[in-house]
Amino acid sequence: MIIFLGNANPTSSILQVPAFWIFLCLIIVSIASFVYINIRQYKFKKACKAVQENLKLGDYVKTFSGLLGKVVGIADVGNMRVVTLKNLDKVAGNITVDIQAICSLLDE
Hints:
alpha+beta, SH3 type barrels, 2 domains, about 35% helix
């Protein structure tokens, strides 16, 4: 004996079920969003890497934390490179950060 629940029709196809199409649309939108976000992150990381590799004394930079400064020193400490920044605010003193904290160059 076969029992059908609801409007189940044994001759209907899965393509006729509205929930299938909603689920398919959600999957397509999710994949498109994932690809779009990853492409943007890849381009941003590539741009940051180029800035970090071409950094020189006197450049004005912005860190990921929002700190603005002028590069006054670049040194190798152990297995990492560090950058000494002169703070652009009215605060005296220099700040030393890892070179990977630099995300962009500023206009002078």
